Amino acid sequence: MKNKLLFLSSLVLVFIINLFAGNIDPYYYTILIYIGINIILASSLNLINGYTGQFSLGHAGFMAIGAYLSVSFSTYFAPFFIDTFGQGVFGNSISFIILLLIGGIAAAIAGIIVGVPSLRLKGDYLAITTLGFAEIIRVIIQSLDVVGASQGFRGAYIFENGMKAAMIPADMSSVPYVFYSVPKYTNFFWTFAFVAIIIFFISNLMSSSYGRGFLAVKDDEVAAESMGVNTTKFKVIAFVSGAFFAGIAGALYGHFNLYINPEDFNFLKSVEIVVMVILGGMGSMVGVIIAAVILTILPEFLRGIAEYRMIIYALLLIIMMLLRPQGLFGVQLRPKKKK
Amino acid sequence: MSLLDIQNCTMKFGGLTCVDSLNTHVGKDELVGMIGPNGAGKTTVFNIITGVYNPTGGDVLFKDKSVVPLKPYEVAEIGISRTFQNIRLFQSLSVRDNIRVSFVKSIKAGFFISTFHIGNYLKEEKEIEDKIDELLDIFGLLDVRDEYAVSLPYGEQRKVEIVRALATSPELLLLDEPAAGMNPTEKTELMSLIKMVKDKFKISILLIEHDMKVVMGVCERIIVLDYGKKIAEGNPENIKNDPKVIEAYLGETHH
Prior knowledge:
The complex is a heterodimer. Chain A has a single domain, classed as ABC transporter involved in vitamin B12 uptake, BtuC. Chain A contains 13 helices and 3 strands, in the order H-H-H-H-H-H-E-E-E-H-H-H-H-H-H-H. Chain A has helices spanning 2-20, 26-51, 59-76, 78-85, 89-118, 124-142, 188-207, 212-219, 221-226, 231-257, 267-280, 285-301, 309-323; strands at 155-159, 164-165, 177-181. Chain A has a 3-stranded antiparallel beta sheet, with helices on one face. In chain A, strand 1 and strand 2 form a beta hairpin. The longest helix of chain A is centred in the first third of the chain and has 30 residues, at 89-118. Chain A is globular and about 65 Å long. By secondary structure, chain B is an alpha/beta fold. Chain B has 2 domains: 1-79 and 170-255, P-loop containing nucleotide triphosphate hydrolases (Rossmann fold), CATH 3.40.50.300; 92-164, no CATH class. In chain B, the strands form 2 sheets. Chain B has a 6-stranded mixed beta sheet with strand order 6-7-8-3-9-10, with helices on both faces. In chain B, strands 2-1-4-5 form a 4-stranded antiparallel beta sheet, with helices on one face. In chain B, strand 1 and strand 2 (16-27) form a beta hairpin. Chains A and B meet through helix 7, helix 8 and helix 9 of A and helix 2, helix 4 and helix 5 of B.
């Protein structure tokens, strides 16, 4: 009950702040939105890596699926959305909810396809499989002309003869067309509404008896299984919910940036999210959120030495491993007993 | 009718036969001990019963149904629970939450109800809390329920493991060396604990143990394994005087 009230009041707060968001300097506004998107990404990965203990390295892949699918729908089917829901605030909101759900559900389905076979693997193997999956997704997108291939995707051309394409084909240059750019739906409200949703989702799930199953899987799979916990089911649930929220984050990102490129979702993006989770402390929600905020703001201060960003991340991780292996806010447990 | 029936069960790992055509049973409300020298295949038998291993031959019946095709979590669902030789408690969970994990399988609230805390969620959580507290009270662990389970003394960790196994409401409880690492006082306490569990929860217990005092003290029937074969079975008195058992434990007898 307390959680529900907190959730609703935070939604109201986000809505009120959004009314004044127009006064925020565009530069800071952009950073704010990216902070929100990164919190969603890091928290959803925390569900897989932190709470359930399955090391996934492919979160950018799910984000890519969510981004590309929802953006494709909002451009290729722009006339449909405009005709059906209109372009008022209310109509746009309904369109956007549908588009976000499309992104999330597509990523969740991808999560099932990748998760069911690969969650039989453990540790390094799972990391490598998920990493491979994310790279496959990126390479596929890179060669898909319908979403602009390696040129990136900024909108759809709908020709008078009914043809649709992301770029004007050479033989169609004389045909009249309408260009539908990616609509700028993402704003402060939607981003932080989903931040509130994912926090509500994870804290409720993890505080329930059912949620203890995830932690049990992380601590000791053999014991969990012997106590009647279907470990495969729990791993798949964590993986698929994580993928769902990554897809939503991707859809938010696409409708904010208005231009998406396969390189936005490369290996380094996956690593960035993993770093947020490890830095914040696996399985600590507050820690991961703070790490997501820090790691979004930090590069802005380091613009001058941007090419050394990954070196700084690596150093940060090494220092963390030495000084606070449990992460900024992770819980220090007694050292594991020797077997 | 026996609760658990092990029929001609064989387990081979490559050329090594760990369990060799084992035939035995555990009756309802019976307390059976399984003893044998190191490497005799006792824990392997447990792993076969709980679905960790699929036997290479023979069958294991629980309430006349084979458990061989079942996965470990399904075996727990039909009413067989176990403890481990090396304590396997969930290290990031408190004592209470360790036991809460046992209720995951019987919980009615699924993923959505647990996420949104709707419907009977609160009522069910309360029921589980009460059951946990009741169990902890029986075992005198109520005071430490919020501590990390792995921070407890060794003897209490063993107890928590037994409580966790009991919380799955089993009909057959498998205890894998519950007295290992305990001092004589703790062992005496454990013996009365095991008897109490059996009487209070009306369950059958199959017990692996090296400590003869414990085995002879609580078990109604004893199975002796050596090199995967059953070399003797009977009541404690007979086992104590069985020449084969003495030979397995002490080597050839020299008088």
